[in-house]
């Protein structure tokens, strides 16, 4: 079955540590996205990638970094510079970034807790 | 800047009844798409329905339909014959050419048995 996998489902880290969230898709989609979801805030875009080896900052990129070395993979690193990293993180992909009709397919999410 | 507003943080509906979730948006674009996404307790986001701005006919997917009022910049979602499985967070979203998708803050829908 095609889809998006995010691992792990729950992640716990100590303050000051970097942590990398995994996102893999087998939908052959060009574009991939990372969102942060906080209660009452909806989804906020962290980074997106239209194609391999290319990515752009979203609305809340500070304290995060990404890479896109393979079409299938778009890992997100939450660095120690992110002031409030505890949140639910969603990865998504879509077939072609510039076609606005395409829906985004979402992974199951990772709940990150930093103490 | 484009914005998406969902004015109802929470709503409840009796099972088998009909409920309408509101969404308004602000844009100066003429070509865009609107979406409703559902996020059940599992937190897996799925697309419910989409509407192209150029199409006057309201989109329908089984029990889900929209009331798209382009001049009023309104895009409400109607769920008919509500079922327990419809309980979820619903997000309205907007996308125009050359721009990222913008989500509203969501409406949590409770289904009362």
Can you tag this structure with a few keywords?
heterodimer; A: 115 residues; mainly beta; 4-stranded antiparallel sheet; globular; B: 113 residues; 6-stranded mixed sheet
Tell me about this structure.
- The complex is a heterodimer of chains A (115) and B (113).
- Chain A has strands spanning 4-7, 10-13, 19-25, 31-38, 42-51, 54-57, 64-66, 76-78, 87-94, 105-106, 110-114.
- In chain A, strands 2, 4, 5, 6, 9, 10 and 11 form a 7-stranded mixed sheet that branches. A 4-stranded antiparallel sheet of chain A has the order 1-3-8-7, with no helix packed on it.
- The model of chain A has no long low-confidence stretch (mean pLDDT 92).
- In chain A, strand 4 (31-38) and strand 5 form a beta hairpin.
- Chain A is built from no helices and 11 strands.
- By secondary structure, chain A is an all-beta fold.
- Helices cover 0% and strands 50% of the residues of chain A.
- Helix content of chain B is 0%, strand content 53%.
- Chain B contains no helices and 12 strands.
- In chain B, strands 2, 5, 6, 10, 11 and 12 form a 6-stranded mixed sheet that branches. A 4-stranded antiparallel sheet of chain B has the order 3-9-8-7, with no helix packed on it.
- In chain B, strand 7 and strand 8 (64-69) form a beta hairpin.
- The mean pLDDT of chain B is 94.
Topology:
The complex is a heterodimer of chains A (115) and B (113).
Chain A: E1 4-7, E2 10-13, E3 19-25, E4 31-38, E5 42-51, E6 54-57, E7 64-66, E8 76-78, E9 87-94, E10 105-106, E11 110-114
Parallel strand pairs in A: 2-11
Antiparallel strand pairs in A: 1-3, 3-8, 4-5, 4-9, 5-6, 7-8, 9-10, 9-11
Chain B: E1 3-5, E2 10-14, E3 19-21, E4 24-26, E5 32-39, E6 46-52, E7 60-61, E8 64-69, E9 74-79, E10 88-96, E11 102-103, E12 107-112
Parallel strand pairs in B: 2-12
Antiparallel strand pairs in B: 1-4, 3-9, 5-6, 5-10, 7-8, 8-9, 10-11, 10-12
């Amino acid at each position: 079955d095609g889809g998006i996998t995010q691992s792990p489902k729950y992640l716990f880290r100590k303050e000051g540590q970097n942590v990398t969230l995994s996102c893999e898709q087998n939908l052959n989609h060009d574009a991939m996205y990372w969102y942060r979801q906080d209660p009452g805030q909806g989804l906020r875009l962290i980074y997106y990638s239209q194609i391999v080896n290319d990515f752009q900052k979203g609305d809340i990129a500070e304290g995060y970094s990404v890479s896109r070395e393979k079409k299938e993979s778009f890992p997100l690193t939450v660095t120690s510079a992110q002031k409030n990293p505890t949140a639910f993180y969603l990865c998504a992909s879509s077939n072609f970034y510039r076609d606005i009709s395409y829906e985004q397919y979402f992974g199951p999410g990772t709940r990150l807790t930093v103490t | 800047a484009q914005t998406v507003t969902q004015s109802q943080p929470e709503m409840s509906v009796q099972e088998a009844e009909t409920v309408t979730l509101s969404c308004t948006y602000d844009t100066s674009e003429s070509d865009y798409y609107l979406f409703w996404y559902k996020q059940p307790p599992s937190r897996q986001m799925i697309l419910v329905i989409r509407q192209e701005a150029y199409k006057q006919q309201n989109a329908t997917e089984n029990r889900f339909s929209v009331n798209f009022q382009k001049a009023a910049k309104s895009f409400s979602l109607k769920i008919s014959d509500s079922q327990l499985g419809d309980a979820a967070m619903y997000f309205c979203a907007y996308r125009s050419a050359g721009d990222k998708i913008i989500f509203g803050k969501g409406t949590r829908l409770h289904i009362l048995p």
